[in-house]
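Here we describe the complex-level prediction in full. Unlike the single-chain runs in Section 2.1, the two entities below were treated as one system.
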Amino acid sequence: MSKSNKSKAEKITAAKRDSLIELLKMEGAKIYNDLDKGQFPQFSVPSRSVSNIVYDKKLKQYILGKAASLRSSRNMAQLRSFTQLIWLAFFANRLIQEKKSSTLRDIYYSSQAFEIDFEDQPESDNIIVDLEAVLARPREDFHIFPEERSSVFGDLTIEYTVPGYEGRRTNLSDHPDGYLIGPSLSSAELVDTSAELVIAIEKGGLFTRFVEEKVDKKFKAIIVDTAGQAPRSTRYLLKRLREQMGLPVVILTDGDVYGEHIAMVIKSGSANAAHLRDLTVSDAKWVGVWASDIEKYKLPTIPMTESDIKRIYDLQKDPRYQEGIWKKELEVFLRLKRKAELEAFSKYGLTNITDKYLPEKLELAKSL
Amino acid sequence: MSKETFNQISPSEFFYRNRDLAGFSNPTRSLYTAVREFVENGLDACDQQGILPDIHLSIKALDPEKPDPKPYVLTVKDNGPGMESKHIPLAFGTVLYGSKFGLKQARGMFGLGATMAILYGQITTNKPVTVSSSIDGKSLNEYEMMLDIQKNKPVIIKHKTIQTNKKGLSVSITLEGDYSKAGAKIRDYVYQTSLITPYATISFDDPKGEKFHYKRIVETMPPPPTIIKPHPHGVDVETIRRMIVDTHYQIPTLDNIMIDKVRKELNLSKKNLNFEGIMARAEKKWSSLSRPVRVIVAIMSFLQMDFDKIMKIRLDDIDLAHKRLTYWDFGESKSVTIEMPKSNPYYKQLANTVQGESVVSFLTKRFQRVGPSTALKFAEFAQIKPDKRIGALTNDELVQLSDSLQKYEDFLSPDPSCLAPLGEEPLAKGMEQFFKPDFSAVIQRSASAYSGFPFVVEMGIAYGGGIPAGKMTVYRFANRIPLLYDEGSDVVMQVVNETDWSRYKVKNESPLVIVTHICSTRIPYKTVGKENVADRPEIEKELKLALQFLARKLSAYMSKKGLAEIEKKRSNLYQKYLPLIAQFATELAAKPKEPAYKKLIKDLNTNVEVKQE
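The structure predicted for the assembly as a whole is:
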């Protein structure tokens, strides 16, 4: 592929990259000028405290309010975290310029070479979130990814944009284990698909079963393993599948309160990422396993723990759980005080879930 | 049945048998005690004459190859006033002979210890003591002596007079000691003595060839203590009885010697005057007459007798209450009683002499800080007639007097002029020199008293600098003597340990030294070993107040130091992080060179040192 004939994917990626570099340069220049004038530089960091996280009904997700705090290098207590923040901006700038990616853990270790002294990884993770908040860009944009990876499988052709692979295409049904949703896949351009549906599934075990049972073909679906609570790169991919490829997303989780919340986070984000907007699939549909399914399908159950029950009460206070199935299923869970896993369908045979439950649920989903 | 025998023992025999009491229980302790006694005597001698002391102590083994305990030669030289040649044998060769029996503060109380050390040396090595003294810095008398323990008498072996160019006293004894065990204590003792005597130069040559030299730090000596009268609270019945016997007077015996004395004082050795002549002469010379002569003259005036007549009678009784005088007339062989006319001017003189002073005058003259009005108020309190003659007090009245003296609250506090505290400045300088601290403070409390004994507490505190961290060190002194033993049960330790140091921002391992000095005419030691002070409430209170005062000062310093440390930490933090920020910002902003941020650090650097005021 020639330079003059850049693909659309490359153009989009480059534009995004350039704007981020420009943003970083601006922040750097502000600090540079303050220092040059003999002033203590400072950052304005949007507050991520609970009081500043509000639910936006229009966006159907949590967003940050207007509160922001100044992190000043004049303040002795903030000096270290100020330095950490500008170091991270500096490091992210290098990652972007050199087209390298890094993990959260790698950031923590890299800091030591610059004598930045993060006490532990949670501290460095927290600074990464600070930088996301300051720039209003997800860390994936500056090439920082979590360690854990979820997977994707199905007829989807992508085109890589990472160095050395630019323009190379892959079909995600080529590998029966699925493809890891890593940095290169996250930044790849989505080119083509025959699928009509995305099924996000909570568990790796069921994901493999779905591949074996050719759910992708039977239901014309792209299957995504969220590996529990979906990492942001996975949510980002789901969003792009919805928006760029126009595919509806359904979510299949364990029959417990955590499963319900995993679905909700895909749909409307998490409070932790309230400073980011591009991670939600607001019309994603949670198809089960519902609490009412436990009764309907007479699934084998186990009793809820106290923390399960406490979690129900907590979610009942959440504005997103005030209507529809979200509200109704919480109530049923609370009444049953029992939960069931996706594997519970094995009671009726290994393929029962794909043969019976899934078609029924997908049919039902159309009316949701 | 065996017959019980009674015999009297001499003082030296007594101390020989009870040498443990004075600290001569074993070779280790004895060597240490002997050092103390001689060094303290030397310092006392210089103190009393206002001479800046120069003390040289040496200990040498007679046979260094022998294992301890073994004989050592202990020599202490001072540059004091020396001692007159004629006093030397008695002072160093008998027990209970000395110049320290007055009421004032001195290191040793009776100078007993030195003789004890000599005694101990003699009984363990059978070697004589050598004393050499020069009072004029020209001639020196040197005695070599042994003690006759049973007779409490010196036995002079050698005495010579030689030329010298140095004043002072040198004592050298041979005694059995254990330096390997006592050495640490002795070195401590010398070190601490130098600390509390900063106006002295003290050197010590130890048996292993090591030399310790502590040079004089201050050139001025604290004023010497004065001998004072006792405070009413500080006396017991026996002391009062002795004081009374001192003031009133036994009728002298009318013998030839006495008559000669009267004639001599009246200047009548060659003349023979009649009665009127004698009286006229006595009246003329009255003010120069001695008390016994006055008594005899008074009696002669009542009897209307001249010398011839008076030599033929024997005085039997003088009954002042009934103004009667009874005598035995040898010529007539009969007893005669005459009335003593009150109008006779000699009557009062006689009464005063025989019965002593009135209670009021006794109190005002014989005790410190008692004036006539206090004495009168006291007499009322004690229910004793103020003009009652103390010679006429019965035993019961004496006890009543003594008890009342203890109980009466309104006596002024004792006069501390008999005390010799070191003073704030010398103490502060000594501590500076010894510990080289970052911070130090001293205080001298004003005088106070317990049971009638005046005392003064001095205290110093030093922090940081040359003082090693670890546990805090407390140096205890009493009357300028370091107390090295029995630390645990001492009142000072009690006060220090009861202090909540965290309130003063002091941690357990703080590099801290506390120096306490208690001066008193009588230190209330807990034991005969004189190494720990008992917890008298008055002393405890003074110690507490002194310590609190110093701790508050330390605390203020610690606060400032804390601020300085924060300031320093702050500065360090900026010095570390600002260059990093500049470096990252430069690359982010894609600038060719770093911003001019160094001024920011420079501004931070000012005002970070905290100095002690």
